[in-house]
C-alpha cells in the first residue's frame, strides 16, 4: 500500500488510535524492525522516521556561523565510528520554531556502552547561552539506540542561534524564530494560536472521533506539504476517503496531520468526526494556518486520551526534565556555550 505526497515520495502509515500498539518510552524497550510503517486513518500520511533528516554539512563548511569562535577541548574518549554518516533533522541555515529538538539518527543502533562517548562528541553551542541535554529516544520506526535528541528544559528562546558539531565529521547551524504554539481543545472543537505568548487566532476544528481519537499531548511540526494523497482502502476502512488533502501540516510519524478537510465545513466547532487528524475548513482557514506555521512550531492537543510518545515524531516535550536526563548516557545536562 502506498500514500503519495506532493513531493513524489511514497509512504505508508497507519495512525488509528483504536488499533495502534503502545510503546513505553524506555531505552530498554524491545527492538522493533527498522522502518516499520503504519498508516494514519484520517487521510494522514507520514515519513519513514520521526523527521526528514539530511546529511550533515562537512565540518569545514561554516557558512552560517552564528557565534564567534571559542576554544574547545576534544573529549578524552576516542570519537565513535557511529558519528560517520549520522543524520540531523535540521537543515543548515534553517529557521525553526521554538519546539524543535535537535535529533540525530545513526545508520546502526549505538550500543549502550558507546552512548556516553557519542554524547561527549555531539557538542551544542548557543547564543545566548542556554541549558540543554541529550536523551536517547526510541524512534517509532528505528531500533533502540538509533536516535538521540537534544532539547532545553523548556522551549527554545526566540532568536537563539545554535551550532551543532557532530564530532569532527560535520557541523550544522540554525536559528530559532518567533514562538508559535497552537492548542487544540478536542472537547471545545477549537484551536487557539499564540504567537510570542499572545493569543492571536481561535480556529474551529474537528478532531478524531471516539475510538479514533487524536493523540493527546505536545507535538511539533515536522514538515508540511501543499497536498498529500490519502486512501482509506490501504488501512481496511473501505471507501471512507481517498484523494488529495490540501495544506497538510505533519505532526507525528504515525501520520497525524493538521490539514484541510471538507467535513470541517460542517463539523468544525461542533463535533469530532475525523479518523485521528485535525481538520480545518476549506474556506481559506486551512491555507492560512498552513502559511503561518513552520517546522518546529508547537501543536498541543488537550482533552483527548492517549498521550503521544516521545519517538512518534517530536513528542520529546511530553517527557519531564528529570526523566529526560535519566535517558541520557551521561545523566546530566550542560550549558551550550557560544562556539564557531
UniProtKB/TrEMBL annotation:
The active site is at 259 (proton donor/acceptor), 277 (nucleophile). Residues 1-15 have a biased composition (Polar residues). Residues 1-22, 48-76 are annotated as: Disordered. Residues 48-61 have a biased composition (Low complexity). Keywords: Acyltransferase, Cell shape, Cell wall biogenesis/degradation, Peptidoglycan synthesis, Signal, Transferase. Pathway: Cell wall biogenesis; peptidoglycan biosynthesis. Residues 1-40 form the signal peptide. Gene3D superfamilies: 2.60.40.3710, L,D-transpeptidase catalytic domain-like (2.40.440.10). InterPro entries: Big_10, LD-transpeptidase, LD_TPept_cat_dom, Transpep_catalytic_dom. Residues 180-302 form the L,D-TPase catalytic domain. It comes from the Bacteria. This is L,D-transpeptidase.
